[in-house]
Amino acid sequence: RDHCRNLQWEVESFVPLIALVFFYLQNNTIKTSRYNVFNFLPLNLFEQFQRLANAYFLVLLFLQLIPQISSLAWYTTVIPLMVVLSITAVKDAIDDMVKWLPGPLADILLLSSSEPYSLTYIETAELDGPEITEPGLFLLNFSSGKVTCESPNNKLDKFTGILTYKGKDFTLDHDKLLLRGCIIRNTDWCYGLLVFLFHLGPDTKLMQNCGKSTFKRTHMDHLLNVLVVWIFLFLGSMCFILAIGHGIWENKKGYYFQNYLPWKEYVPSSAVSAILVFWSYFIILNTMVPISLYVSVEIIRLGNSCYINWDRKMFYAPKNSPAQARTTTLNEELGQVKYVFSDKTGTLTQNIMVFNKCSINGMFYGMHAATKKFVLTSVFQETEKVDFSYNKLADPKFSFYDKTLVEAVKKGDRWVHLFFLSLSLCHTVMSEEKVEGKLVYQAQSPDEGALVTAARNFGFVFRYRTSETIAVVEMGETRVYQLLAILDFNNVRKRMSIVGRTPEDRVMLFCKGADTILCQLLHPSCRFLRDVTMEHLDDFAIEGLRTLMVAYRELDNSFFQAWSKKHSEACLSLENREHKMSSVYEEIEKDMMLLGATAIEDKLQDGVPETVATLNKAQIKMWVLTGDKQETAVNIAYACNIFEEEMDGMFIVEGKNNETVLQELRDKMKPESLLESDPVNIYLTSKPQMLRIPEEVPNGNYGLIINGCSLAYALEGNLELELVRTACMCKGVICCRMTPLQKAQVVEMVKRYKKVVTLAIGDGANDVSMIKAAHIGVGISGQEGMQAMLNSDYAFSQFRYLQRLLLVHGRWSYNRMCKFLSYFFYKNFAFTLVHFWYAFFSGFSAQTVYDTWFITFYNLVYTSLPVLGLSLFDQDVNETWSLRFPELYEPGQHNLYFNKKEFVKCLVHGIYSSFILFFIPMGTIYNSVRSDGKEISDYQSFSLIVQTSLLWVVTMQIALETTYWTMISHIFTWGSLGFYFCILFFLYSDGLCLMFPNVFQFLGVARNTLNLPQMWLSIVLSVILCILPVIGYQFLKPLFWPVNVDKIMDRIHLSTKLPLPPPTRTKLKYASCRHSAYAFSHKQGFGALITSGKILRSRVSKKNSFLFKK
């Protein structure tokens, strides 16, 4: 297995072979979840105890089992801990259960198929993005053999092996392999041998690229772990101080009062007593980190996840598909995203090509050109479709809205006819006509399919082809052209041509390709027409359309014969064949006459440009990671507003070695990075252990384009640092021709060097690796299967829902979680630290200041509903303003609302409040008596006054934090306070205290204390003194330390009185230098297959019975 794999079979026919394949695949289940029946309990507990708070309470439980130091029963910790672990485990199990993907999946070696020469058409959309059919080239019709091939690896474009049959060896390569993730098209049947199975491990090439499923934890979880350590150290410090105080007190006073306060027999000295009291206070003060924290966090996350699931504005009616929060642990992370990594095909686009406009002989044809004038006066008027009913062979699905083009065709315009004739001849499309008049085109690229379909509807119908002829129905008349040569497309030539002989015996060359190339090959007489056409191409480019220029040349017969001889010699050459053929092509592809240009719309999903523009305003950077070609990816980037015409520069990295890539990366954006004086170099030199790169501000607005080959070098060693520095300063980044593994590597690179939250979004199996690698993975349930969605954290059907997911749900979730944590820590600090002050007046005896039942109910009942109401329903602004002002999203990216600094503020506020809550009640009842002269400064009365004042203070505090009041909020906030008094009278009632005197010991305290004026004076003073600094801070902060969000909030508050004007649409500016909108997702090599005749079915149907003979 380390070096190669041997596969051997002996079967009498293909039927048992298929049965054998079927048998193996029955249990061939793909698991994309991280748990199974055997590892769930240990793995889940391991993950949960990575939360230090859970580990802290486990240690606390063991301490409570020691009677010498425990002042609380052990079950007060073990029961809540079990509840927390159980609830979290059930939630994790439910989240994980949806990530099972059953199915028969394997890589298969093609043996035979229904097509001529055993070709098989496959759609590789899930592997490399674009929808392309590729042929396999292998025919086998035998019953036994042996295959030796490479061991499983992640190289999607490479496969090596040897087939041994009847003593002969046959080489195997990538063309013979059907990869998992491919979809077989236009092929009735095929037989194959399973090579890489998933049944015994992740052997398939696609799964080798998918990466491992990992447990994703939010930045807030990591921060909480750090804060728990801080709290633990603070707790230890307080316990140490109190233990020292206890030792001093026992040594100076307690030692002499042993007749009244006898020491236990296991306490020989004050030092030992101090050590035991240290652990007693450690248990008493454990509410500094309440165990209910994580339960509350999970409930809040679950509630915010339900909001996503219930959001009707993220429901896609055509597919009956709602948005899904497939995990409940990452909601607040949605409000902190800085980088979005997106696939192209099926994510930004619909992968549907539509012939939208064209320019023919200087005339502009298309919907917007025809309606330019009346669009301004009648925006909402629908334009009628062109009626193609006169053409019986027209495609009923085709739509066009400019009638002038049809009229030009019907009038017999020579240039229009020649233009569409070129489109109907210059292609590699295959035609199938199973039913008379019902043509089905099999296009190697969707671009070609759209062009040939357009020609078909305008009256130039490509009917069928052989290896030597092409039949076209021109305006109802069938004409057969002799195919003399196909000058195939490649990425360097950026064009393809065909040479054909017309029925009139004229030799014609038709060419289509990139305008940047064809402009140099035109006849000088076309200069004016070229300039006009280039203006039209600029218009097409601004609209984000994919363009091709179309030209022709009439050839002299003798010239063609001489050229054909050179062409044959180049084809048979054994050395430098590609170069020689390219030179021969250039001899004939010159002095061409320009016909016009096509503009195809690679239909974007609805709302994509607006969504990208909105995300840009929110300071979210967009990177497109695609397996598609560079031209296509760049074209879509302009259409989606990732790139803009007015950008200061576009940098292309296309080096073929380390040195070139390094130089391109440094020279492009930051030439000073070569110098030792560069601030970042100084920073990294001074702190070599720091992997985080500080933010750098570019001196302009730039875009970066890099292909997969250059990226392979850039992701190695120190080049990675240069890449991330350059790329992160760009407004948009396009990485094209990438493998799935490279997508994950790019995401991991940004995570490693930048302290940011990343989000990856895609719809195909080739996106699974980056979805798993990013902090947040979003799957689109599109045309490329369900694997991206099944591996995602969130899923929906349209890219445009991303802005709502982030700017509305994400921002609300982040704000709510920050408010929750700030308030939760504050209320528990204020609650717990009262014990610290009380210790100085109780001989440091580890005596609690509150009633035991109040300690039990404080987090569970009295303060749970208000904080949940705040965390589930609060909105600083509504969804309309959240989308209107994307800049409100920025604080989450910098984590401004809850961080270490904010935590320290909570701690200081809690210490101050606890000080007030202890000394104000003590001062009000000190040496005080009732109206009847009885003493009121007893322990139980003091305890009741302190805990009641505490509840009033924390209730008023949460009322100040709430910005969006609903009926539920009022019920939760004020109802909890009222419920406290109801419980108070019940727990301190005469009947309950007389029935269980050992459990309920505060007999009559509520009745006797609540009518004291000193108690209400204590409550009023405590509330005023605790809340007044908060009000002052909230008032002064926007005045003296304003941030951008404060200014926006002022605008929003002002607009409630004076509504803002509707947003104005800014017109796109023309760039000083144009970019080519050329894009063509064609692959090299298909032309040779056509001329060889291997992919052409006989026009006479034949029975393929030989395949079923024994």
Strand segment count:
32
> If you average the pLDDT, what whole number results?
80
The radius of gyration computed from the alpha-carbon positions, rounded to a whole number of angstroms, is 37 Å
Q: Strand content of the residues, in percent?
A: 15-25%
Helix content range: 40-55%
Global outline: elongated
Spatial strand sequence of the major β-sheet: 13-32-31-30-14-26-29-28-27
Number of helices, where a helix is a run of at least 4 consecutive DSSP H or I residues: 41
Task: Provide the structure class.
Answer: alpha+beta
From the N-terminal CA to the C-terminal CA, the straight-line distance is 34 Å
Q: Could you describe the largest sheet, including whether it forms a barrel?
A: 9 strands, mixed
Low-confidence stretches: 10-28, 129-141, 368-382, 673-677, 1065-1073, 1098-1110
Subcellular location: Membrane
Membrane topology: Multi-pass membrane protein
Active site: 343 (4-aspartylphosphate intermediate)
GO molecular function: ATP binding; ATP hydrolysis activity; ATPase-coupled intramembrane lipid transporter activity; magnesium ion binding
List the helices and strands and how they pair.
Blueprint: E1 4-10, H1 14-25, E2 30-31, H2 40-48, H3 52-64, H4 75-97, E3 100-101, E4 106-113, E5 121-123, H5 125-128, E6 133-134, E7 144-150, E8 161-165, E9 168-172, E10 177-178, E11 183-185, E12 190-197, H6 205-208, H7 219-252, H8 270-284, H9 292-310, E13 324-325, E14 337-342, E15 349-360, E16 363-366, H10 367-370, H11 372-375, H12 403-411, H13 414-425, E17 430-435, E18 438-442, H14 446-457, E19 460-465, E20 469-474, E21 477-487, E22 495-501, E23 507-513, H15 515-518, H16 527-542, E24 546-555, H17 557-572, H18 577-588, E25 593-604, H19 608-617, E26 621-625, H20 630-639, E27 649-653, H21 658-668, H22 679-686, E28 702-707, H23 708-714, H24 719-728, E29 732-736, H25 740-753, E30 757-762, H26 768-773, E31 776-780, H27 787-790, E32 794-796, H28 801-832, H29 834-839, H30 852-862, H31 864-873, H32 879-884, H33 890-893, H34 900-925, H35 939-961, H36 967-987, H37 990-995, H38 1005-1009, H39 1013-1040, H40 1044-1055, H41 1086-1092
Parallel strand pairs: 14-26, 14-30, 26-29, 27-28, 28-29, 30-31, 31-32
Antiparallel strand pairs: 1-7, 2-3, 4-10, 4-12, 5-6, 5-11, 7-8, 8-9, 13-32, 15-16, 15-25, 17-18, 19-20, 20-21, 21-22, 22-23, 23-24, 24-25
Helix pairs in contact: 2-4, 3-4, 4-9, 7-8, 9-28, 9-31, 13-14, 17-18, 19-28, 21-24, 28-31, 28-34, 28-35, 31-36, 34-35, 34-39, 35-39
